[in-house]
Protein backbone atom coordinates (compact mmCIF):
# COMPACT_ATOMS: atom_id res chain seq x y z
CA UNK A 1 0.00 0.00 0.00
CA UNK A 2 1.39 3.39 -0.99
CA UNK A 3 2.41 5.70 1.86
CA UNK A 4 0.04 8.54 2.71
CA UNK A 5 0.91 11.92 1.29
CA UNK A 6 1.63 14.92 3.45
CA UNK A 7 -1.75 16.46 2.60
CA UNK A 8 -3.57 13.27 3.59
CA UNK A 9 -1.70 13.11 6.89
CA UNK A 10 -2.58 16.75 7.51
CA UNK A 11 -6.27 16.15 6.81
CA UNK A 12 -6.33 13.09 9.12
CA UNK A 13 -4.57 15.02 11.86
CA UNK A 14 -7.08 17.86 11.49
CA UNK A 15 -10.03 15.49 11.76
CA UNK A 16 -8.69 13.93 14.98
CA UNK A 17 -7.44 17.19 16.41
CA UNK A 18 -3.86 15.95 16.23
CA UNK A 19 -4.58 13.20 18.75
CA UNK A 20 -5.20 9.49 18.55
CA UNK A 21 -8.77 8.55 19.48
CA UNK A 22 -8.84 7.96 23.21
CA UNK A 23 -10.69 5.12 24.87
CA UNK A 24 -13.19 5.61 27.64
CA UNK A 25 -11.19 5.76 30.89
CA UNK A 26 -11.46 2.92 33.36
CA UNK A 27 -13.66 3.66 36.35
CA UNK A 28 -11.40 4.05 39.41
CA UNK A 29 -11.60 1.28 41.99
CA UNK A 30 -12.26 3.93 44.64
CA UNK A 31 -15.50 4.87 42.88
CA UNK A 32 -16.69 1.26 43.02
CA UNK A 33 -15.86 0.96 46.71
CA UNK A 34 -17.56 4.29 47.38
CA UNK A 35 -20.73 3.06 45.69
CA UNK A 36 -20.61 -0.16 47.69
CA UNK A 37 -20.25 1.77 50.95
CA UNK A 38 -23.14 4.08 50.02
CA UNK A 39 -25.38 1.07 49.36
CA UNK A 40 -24.32 -0.57 52.63
CA UNK A 41 -25.01 2.61 54.58
CA UNK A 42 -28.41 2.82 52.87
CA UNK A 43 -29.32 -0.63 54.22
CA UNK A 44 -28.73 0.47 57.80
CA UNK A 45 -30.34 3.88 57.22
CA UNK A 46 -33.52 2.26 55.88
CA UNK A 47 -33.59 -0.07 58.89
CA UNK A 48 -32.95 2.77 61.34
CA UNK A 49 -35.85 4.87 60.03
CA UNK A 50 -38.47 2.39 58.85
CA UNK A 51 -38.03 -0.13 61.67
CA UNK A 52 -36.67 1.79 64.65
CA UNK A 53 -38.98 4.85 64.50
CA UNK A 54 -42.72 5.20 64.94
CA UNK A 55 -43.13 7.32 61.79
CA UNK A 56 -41.10 4.88 59.76
CA UNK A 57 -43.15 1.91 60.91
CA UNK A 58 -46.36 3.80 60.20
CA UNK A 59 -45.32 4.64 56.64
CA UNK A 60 -44.04 1.14 55.98
CA UNK A 61 -47.11 -0.55 57.42
CA UNK A 62 -49.49 1.76 55.51
CA UNK A 63 -48.64 0.14 52.18
CA UNK A 64 -49.08 -3.39 53.57
CA UNK A 65 -52.36 -2.44 55.26
CA UNK A 66 -53.60 -0.91 52.02
CA UNK A 67 -52.80 -4.12 50.13
CA UNK A 68 -54.60 -6.22 52.73
CA UNK A 69 -57.63 -3.92 52.76
CA UNK A 70 -57.90 -4.14 48.99
CA UNK A 71 -57.38 -7.93 49.07
CA UNK A 72 -54.70 -7.57 46.42
CA UNK A 73 -53.45 -11.08 47.07
CA UNK A 74 -56.72 -12.36 45.55
CA UNK A 75 -56.44 -10.20 42.43
CA UNK A 76 -55.72 -12.10 39.19
CA UNK A 77 -52.37 -10.38 38.69
CA UNK A 78 -51.31 -11.14 42.26
CA UNK A 79 -52.43 -14.74 41.98
CA UNK A 80 -50.40 -15.07 38.79
CA UNK A 81 -47.36 -13.54 40.52
CA UNK A 82 -47.72 -15.90 43.47
CA UNK A 83 -47.85 -18.96 41.23
CA UNK A 84 -44.58 -18.13 39.49
CA UNK A 85 -41.66 -20.15 40.87
CA UNK A 86 -39.50 -17.16 41.69
CA UNK A 87 -36.67 -19.07 43.30
CA UNK A 88 -36.54 -21.47 40.38
CA UNK A 89 -36.46 -18.56 37.94
CA UNK A 90 -33.70 -16.79 39.86
CA UNK A 91 -31.75 -20.05 40.08
CA UNK A 92 -31.98 -20.49 36.32
CA UNK A 93 -30.84 -16.91 35.74
CA UNK A 94 -27.85 -17.34 38.05
CA UNK A 95 -26.91 -20.62 36.36
CA UNK A 96 -27.20 -18.90 32.99
CA UNK A 97 -24.91 -16.09 34.17
CA UNK A 98 -22.33 -18.62 35.34
CA UNK A 99 -22.57 -20.48 32.04
CA UNK A 100 -22.11 -17.30 30.00
CA UNK A 101 -19.04 -16.31 32.01
CA UNK A 102 -17.55 -19.81 31.68
CA UNK A 103 -18.19 -20.04 27.94
CA UNK A 104 -16.65 -16.60 27.45
CA UNK A 105 -13.72 -17.63 29.67
CA UNK A 106 -14.15 -14.53 31.79
CA UNK A 107 -12.90 -15.96 35.08
CA UNK A 108 -12.81 -12.61 36.85
CA UNK A 109 -16.47 -12.15 35.93
CA UNK A 110 -17.24 -15.64 37.26
CA UNK A 111 -15.61 -14.77 40.57
CA UNK A 112 -17.57 -11.52 40.72
CA UNK A 113 -20.83 -13.40 40.08
CA UNK A 114 -20.14 -15.91 42.86
CA UNK A 115 -19.18 -13.17 45.32
CA UNK A 116 -22.24 -11.09 44.41
CA UNK A 117 -24.81 -13.86 44.71
CA UNK A 118 -23.34 -15.62 47.74
CA UNK A 119 -22.57 -12.38 49.55
CA UNK A 120 -25.98 -10.82 48.94
CA UNK A 121 -28.03 -13.91 49.85
CA UNK A 122 -26.02 -14.85 52.93
CA UNK A 123 -25.77 -11.31 54.30
CA UNK A 124 -29.51 -10.82 53.85
CA UNK A 125 -30.23 -13.89 55.96
CA UNK A 126 -27.66 -12.80 58.54
CA UNK A 127 -29.08 -9.29 58.80
CA UNK A 128 -32.68 -10.48 58.95
CA UNK A 129 -32.28 -13.19 61.56
CA UNK A 130 -29.17 -12.30 63.57
CA UNK A 131 -28.55 -8.56 63.38
CA UNK A 132 -31.80 -6.66 62.88
CA UNK A 133 -34.79 -6.86 65.19
CA UNK A 134 -38.15 -5.16 65.03
CA UNK A 135 -38.99 -3.35 68.28
CA UNK A 136 -42.55 -3.05 69.54
CA UNK A 137 -43.32 0.67 69.27
CA UNK A 138 -46.99 0.34 70.19
CA UNK A 139 -48.29 0.01 66.64
CA UNK A 140 -50.64 -2.67 65.37
CA UNK A 141 -48.04 -4.56 63.39
CA UNK A 142 -46.19 -7.84 63.41
CA UNK A 143 -43.09 -7.64 65.56
CA UNK A 144 -41.26 -10.25 63.50
CA UNK A 145 -38.45 -8.62 61.54
CA UNK A 146 -38.69 -9.16 57.79
CA UNK A 147 -35.99 -6.75 56.58
CA UNK A 148 -34.28 -7.30 54.13
CA UNK A 149 -36.48 -9.29 51.73
CA UNK A 150 -34.96 -12.62 50.73
CA UNK A 151 -37.11 -12.88 47.59
CA UNK A 152 -36.00 -9.48 46.35
CA UNK A 153 -32.37 -10.15 47.22
CA UNK A 154 -32.39 -13.38 45.20
CA UNK A 155 -34.06 -11.70 42.22
CA UNK A 156 -31.78 -8.67 42.32
CA UNK A 157 -28.66 -10.83 42.68
CA UNK A 158 -29.72 -12.93 39.67
CA UNK A 159 -30.29 -9.79 37.59
CA UNK A 160 -26.93 -8.37 38.71
CA UNK A 161 -25.20 -11.67 37.88
CA UNK A 162 -26.50 -11.53 34.32
CA UNK A 163 -25.49 -7.89 34.07
CA UNK A 164 -21.95 -8.91 34.99
CA UNK A 165 -21.88 -11.94 32.71
CA UNK A 166 -23.00 -10.49 29.39
CA UNK A 167 -20.61 -8.62 27.07
CA UNK A 168 -20.33 -4.94 27.83
CA UNK A 169 -22.28 -4.02 24.69
CA UNK A 170 -25.35 -5.72 26.19
CA UNK A 171 -25.10 -4.28 29.68
CA UNK A 172 -27.30 -1.22 29.04
CA UNK A 173 -30.12 -3.54 27.92
CA UNK A 174 -29.63 -5.97 30.80
CA UNK A 175 -29.41 -3.10 33.26
CA UNK A 176 -32.88 -1.86 32.32
CA UNK A 177 -34.24 -5.42 32.18
CA UNK A 178 -32.68 -6.22 35.56
CA UNK A 179 -34.33 -3.21 37.18
CA UNK A 180 -37.71 -4.20 35.72
CA UNK A 181 -37.37 -7.84 36.82
CA UNK A 182 -36.31 -6.87 40.35
CA UNK A 183 -39.16 -4.35 40.65
CA UNK A 184 -41.64 -6.98 39.46
CA UNK A 185 -40.54 -9.52 42.07
CA UNK A 186 -40.46 -6.79 44.70
CA UNK A 187 -44.00 -5.72 43.85
CA UNK A 188 -45.22 -9.30 44.11
CA UNK A 189 -43.98 -9.51 47.70
CA UNK A 190 -46.04 -6.45 48.66
CA UNK A 191 -49.31 -7.34 46.94
CA UNK A 192 -49.01 -10.85 48.39
CA UNK A 193 -48.48 -9.46 51.94
CA UNK A 194 -45.03 -11.04 52.20
CA UNK A 195 -42.94 -7.91 52.69
CA UNK A 196 -43.17 -4.23 53.45
CA UNK A 197 -41.59 -1.69 51.05
CA UNK A 198 -38.60 -1.04 53.31
CA UNK A 199 -37.76 -4.76 53.24
CA UNK A 200 -37.48 -4.53 49.47
CA UNK A 201 -35.51 -1.28 49.42
CA UNK A 202 -32.92 -2.63 51.84
CA UNK A 203 -32.64 -5.88 49.84
CA UNK A 204 -31.93 -3.97 46.62
CA UNK A 205 -29.29 -1.93 48.45
CA UNK A 206 -27.67 -5.17 49.67
CA UNK A 207 -27.45 -6.38 46.07
CA UNK A 208 -25.95 -3.09 44.93
CA UNK A 209 -23.33 -3.15 47.70
CA UNK A 210 -22.17 -6.69 46.91
CA UNK A 211 -22.15 -6.20 43.13
CA UNK A 212 -19.98 -3.12 43.34
CA UNK A 213 -17.72 -4.68 45.97
CA UNK A 214 -17.32 -7.82 43.85
CA UNK A 215 -16.46 -5.70 40.82
CA UNK A 216 -13.87 -3.79 42.83
CA UNK A 217 -12.38 -7.01 44.21
CA UNK A 218 -11.66 -8.25 40.68
CA UNK A 219 -9.48 -5.14 40.22
CA UNK A 220 -10.58 -3.17 37.15
CA UNK A 221 -7.10 -1.62 37.11
CA UNK A 222 -5.86 -4.74 35.34
CA UNK A 223 -7.45 -3.20 32.25
CA UNK A 224 -4.08 -1.54 31.69
CA UNK A 225 -2.75 -4.97 30.69
CA UNK A 226 -5.21 -5.27 27.84
CA UNK A 227 -3.96 -5.11 24.29
CA UNK A 228 -4.00 -1.64 22.89
CA UNK A 229 -6.77 -1.22 20.37
CA UNK A 230 -6.87 1.03 17.38
CA UNK A 231 -9.20 3.85 16.49
CA UNK A 232 -12.06 1.41 15.91
CA UNK A 233 -11.69 -0.01 19.41
CA UNK A 234 -11.73 3.46 20.93
CA UNK A 235 -14.85 4.41 18.97
CA UNK A 236 -16.56 1.18 20.08
CA UNK A 237 -15.71 1.81 23.73
CA UNK A 238 -17.06 5.35 23.59
CA UNK A 239 -20.25 4.12 21.92
CA UNK A 240 -20.80 1.47 24.61
CA UNK A 241 -20.13 3.97 27.39
CA UNK A 242 -22.58 6.39 25.75
CA UNK A 243 -25.30 3.72 25.60
CA UNK A 244 -24.67 2.87 29.25
CA UNK A 245 -25.03 6.54 30.17
CA UNK A 246 -28.35 6.75 28.34
CA UNK A 247 -29.68 3.60 30.04
CA UNK A 248 -28.42 4.77 33.42
CA UNK A 249 -29.97 8.22 33.04
CA UNK A 250 -33.29 6.71 31.95
CA UNK A 251 -33.31 4.52 35.06
CA UNK A 252 -32.36 7.49 37.23
CA UNK A 253 -35.23 9.44 35.69
CA UNK A 254 -37.66 6.63 36.47
CA UNK A 255 -36.29 6.43 40.03
CA UNK A 256 -36.66 10.17 40.57
CA UNK A 257 -40.23 10.35 39.28
CA UNK A 258 -41.27 7.21 41.18
CA UNK A 259 -39.73 8.48 44.42
CA UNK A 260 -41.35 11.91 44.10
CA UNK A 261 -44.82 10.52 43.39
CA UNK A 262 -44.38 7.99 46.21
CA UNK A 263 -43.52 10.78 48.62
CA UNK A 264 -46.54 12.83 47.52
CA UNK A 265 -48.82 9.84 48.05
CA UNK A 266 -47.36 9.03 51.45
CA UNK A 267 -47.65 12.61 52.70
CA UNK A 268 -51.18 13.06 51.38
CA UNK A 269 -50.27 15.88 49.00
CA UNK A 270 -52.06 13.82 46.36
CA UNK A 271 -55.53 13.47 47.94
CA UNK A 272 -57.47 10.22 48.17
CA UNK A 273 -59.97 11.63 45.70
CA UNK A 274 -57.24 11.33 43.08
CA UNK A 275 -55.11 8.51 44.45
CA UNK A 276 -58.05 6.32 45.37
CA UNK A 277 -58.27 3.94 48.32
CA UNK A 278 -55.03 2.24 47.27
CA UNK A 279 -52.88 5.35 47.50
CA UNK A 280 -50.55 3.91 50.12
CA UNK A 281 -50.18 0.70 48.14
CA UNK A 282 -49.13 2.65 45.06
CA UNK A 283 -46.78 4.69 47.25
CA UNK A 284 -45.10 1.50 48.41
CA UNK A 285 -44.87 0.01 44.93
CA UNK A 286 -43.37 3.22 43.55
CA UNK A 287 -40.89 3.37 46.44
CA UNK A 288 -39.73 -0.14 45.58
CA UNK A 289 -39.51 0.72 41.88
CA UNK A 290 -37.45 3.81 42.68
CA UNK A 291 -34.96 1.73 44.67
CA UNK A 292 -34.57 -0.94 41.99
CA UNK A 293 -34.19 1.67 39.25
CA UNK A 294 -31.64 3.72 41.19
CA UNK A 295 -29.42 0.77 42.10
CA UNK A 296 -29.43 -0.69 38.60
CA UNK A 297 -28.81 2.75 37.15
CA UNK A 298 -25.62 2.90 39.20
CA UNK A 299 -24.61 -0.63 38.21
CA UNK A 300 -25.25 0.07 34.53
CA UNK A 301 -23.24 3.28 34.61
CA UNK A 302 -20.37 1.57 36.43
CA UNK A 303 -20.23 -1.62 34.38
CA UNK A 304 -20.59 0.24 31.12
CA UNK A 305 -17.14 1.70 31.61
CA UNK A 306 -13.97 0.00 30.37
CA UNK A 307 -12.75 -2.50 32.96
CA UNK A 308 -11.54 -6.06 33.42
CA UNK A 309 -15.13 -7.28 33.56
CA UNK A 310 -15.72 -7.54 29.82
Automatic annotation (TrEMBL):
Transmembrane residue ranges: 29-50, 79-100, 107-127, 147-166, 173-194, 200-218, 246-269, 281-304
SMART domains found in the cross-reference section: acidPPc (SM00014)
Domain of life: Bacteria
Keywords in alphabetical order: Membrane, Transmembrane, Transmembrane helix
Protein name, UniProt field: Phosphatidic acid phosphatase type 2/haloperoxidase domain-containing protein
Spans annotated as Disordered: 1-23
Record domain Phosphatidic acid phosphatase type 2/haloperoxidase: where: 109-215
Amino acid sequence: MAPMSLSELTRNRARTGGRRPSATPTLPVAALWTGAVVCAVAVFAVYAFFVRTVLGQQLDEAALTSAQRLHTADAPAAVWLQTLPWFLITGVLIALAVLIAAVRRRWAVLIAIVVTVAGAVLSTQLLKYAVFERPDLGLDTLTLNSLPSGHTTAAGAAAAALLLAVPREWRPVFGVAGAAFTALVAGSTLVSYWHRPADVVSAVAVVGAWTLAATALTDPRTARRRRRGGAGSAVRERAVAHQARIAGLVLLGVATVALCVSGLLYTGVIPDAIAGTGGNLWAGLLFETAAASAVFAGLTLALGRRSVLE
